[in-house]
Amino acid sequence: MKTVAIIGGTGHQGPGLALRWAKSGRYRVIVGSRDAAKAQAVADSLNARLGKRLVEGMHNADAAAAADIVVLTVPYSAHLATLESIRAQLKGKVLVDVTVPLQPPRVSHAYIPPAGSATAEAQEFLGEEVRVVCAFQNVSATHLSQLDEPLDCDVLVCGDDKDAKAEAIALAEAAETRGFDAGPLQNAVVVEGLTAILIGINKRYNADGAGIRITGLP
Amino acid sequence: MKTVAIIGGTGHQGPGLALRWAKSGRYRVIVGSRDAAKAQAVADSLNARLGKRLVEGMHNADAAAAADIVVLTVPYSAHLATLESIRAQLKGKVLVDVTVPLQPPRVSHAYIPPAGSATAEAQEFLGEEVRVVCAFQNVSATHLSQLDEPLDCDVLVCGDDKDAKAEAIALAEAAETRGFDAGPLQNAVVVEGLTAILIGINKRYNADGAGIRITGLP
Questions:
Q1: Which of residues 131-170 of A touch B (CB under 8 A)?
Q2: Is the ipTM of this complex over 0.95?
Q3: CA pair distance B136, B215, nearest whole angstrom
Q4: Between A14-24 and A36-50, two packed helices, what is the crossing angle to 10 degrees?
Q5: pLDDT tens figures, B100-127
Q6: Are A94 and A133 contacting, i.e. CB atoms less than 8 angstroms apart?
Q7: Closest residue by Cα to residue A58 from A74, A28, A34
Q8: Do B197 and A190 count as a contact with CB atoms less than 8 A apart?
Q9: Which is nearest to B59 in space by CA: B15, B11, B96, B5?
Q10: Are A189 and B193 inside 8 Å of each other by CB?
């Protein structure tokens, strides 16, 4: 069984992903935080919801070290600093970057970082020893944590390594939704920016977790 | 009744849009082309399908001059040249730009023009006298022309003028689908780039017209 670590896993997106992946029984799941005690507390509360001790809590670096697949769910302002803090532990692994480069307070405006996307920044920063893909930016934290309801949002996965994309697609399936190969890392700008559009749609159309589905498939 | 002109309307996307809008009975519909005879021939064939003379064919500039709302459906390589050819006729009007900045042969890679998007290029080129919005990039030409089948693709509309966005949303509704205010012109990069992702999904998943739906609405 592969181990997935969710770095910054005590924030908005992390706990819901941890719940879904733990529930699937397909992964060993670790929630990471800068504060190991906080990670443990969040893991405890998730385990209470699951009715089983399935999720572990660790310091971010320990979580990354223990993982086969590392998932990053931090605010954009903490993106590069967090990557720096787990750089040594990422070597040779797959990094699934969930970061959306939002520029508060204009969180419904798509912002394009100089490298092209947050995912491209991560890949540039980490170099070729880490295979970076983007995924899960469009799935609402609200819906992720509603364990009894199926996710009604597809996961678009971008990256330059096919095997790494397959890992992220498998994670989407373990969360009981669909994952799609959405092309090269260059396309991450679209998937990240779509989150800004969905945040705007939430506000304008009074939704609390707009998402997307791909239509027109055979 | 408002008049909508589809510039470059004899290509892939234009005829299907013309069919849907003519069928709705909500607009006078003109198909434009650089070649007036070709525009007329396409209008004739659409009218044959509709069983009524509803669509007119004209030279692009005449079509734009006659219209309240101008819709642009040309390949990216013809984008600025076409805008130049109808610039005088666009003043004071709404331009709905359907152009996707694809860079053949890499049509499944999202390309970002220097201005940020094709729509932003159009707005910069035309200046404040024309209100530019983007819409309809994600709707497949194949499905548009299948008049008997409802469109299974939402239309994301970006622009900096709320009334202009409302015109595009009304056009989406006339095509029997949903249009969403997807935020400022700055977000057009996402909607345009999503088409590259959908083209890639068509190839990888053997679809001929992948689209998107917004989920999670109240």
A1: 140, 143, 152-153, 156
A2: yes
A3: 18
A4: 50
A5: 999 999 999 999 999 999 999 999 999 9
A6: yes
A7: A34
A8: yes
A9: B5
A10: yes
Q: How many CB pairs under 8 A join A and B?
A: 135
CB-count burial class (<10 Å; 0-12, 13-18, 19+) for B21: buried
- How far is the C-alpha of A60 from the C-alpha of A66, rounded, in Å? 10
Give the amino acid at A108. S
Chain centroid to CA A63: 15
- Please report, for residues A121, A158, B120, B133, the alpha-carbon distance to residue A162 in angstroms, rounded to integers and kept in the order given: 19, 9, 33, 35
Whether the CB-CB separation of A171 and A3 falls below 8 Å is answered with no
Q: Do B181 and A193 count as a contact with CB atoms less than 8 A apart?
A: no
* Per-residue pLDDT tens digits for B48-63: 999 999 999 999 999 9
- Residue with structure tokens 């932003």? B120
> Which two tokens mark A148?
């009894």
A69 dihedral zone (left: phi>0; alpha: psi -120 to 50; beta): beta
d(CA A179, CA A166): 9
Rounded-to-integer distance, Cα A165 and Cα A2, Å: 15
Name B155's bridge partners.
B179
Q: Whats the size of chain B, residue-wise?
A: 218
List of chain A residues whose C-beta atoms are within 8 Å of the C-beta of residue B145:
none
Q: What is the pTM of this model?
A: 0.97
